[in-house]
Amino acid sequence: MNEIFERISVRKFEDRPVEPEKLTQIMRAAMAAPSAGDQQPWEFYIVTNREKIRALSECSPYAGCAADAPVVIVPCYRTSGLRFPEFDTIDLSIATQNILLEITSLGLGGVWLAAAPIGERMEKVEAVLGISEGLRAFAIVPLGYPAEKRARRDRYDESRIHCL
Question: In 3-state terms, what secondary structure has residue 4?
Fold first, then answer.
């Protein structure tokens, strides 16, 4: 699975739409993630509305790069009806990683911009999208065709491995 080793955080995008079938494939990858007790606590907002994207880019001091993305995905988690609610953000982390890996496999680029666990950021995202009560915004994931190329750093560090 080369995407693990090829994925980089992309913050600059071409002015080019992302095909709907690619967005469907990204959502399939997200929902293929494992979750605690198979609770699948996720809901996803796919945002292509320019005004909403610009507003999302102002929800965090680090989200400015989202302003020029053709698409932003906002993964959210349900707050009720879960068997294992203490694992909701772990489940969403796995789904978001799947999103980033599938983005890479499709020749796109993206970046994970945290909303959770910072309540103020989460509330701003929820207000922009009109997210219903019972859902919490987890992240902002701008994506599109990369307008930048750079090599990925090798982060392997054998000193962090402990064999017993």
Answer: helix
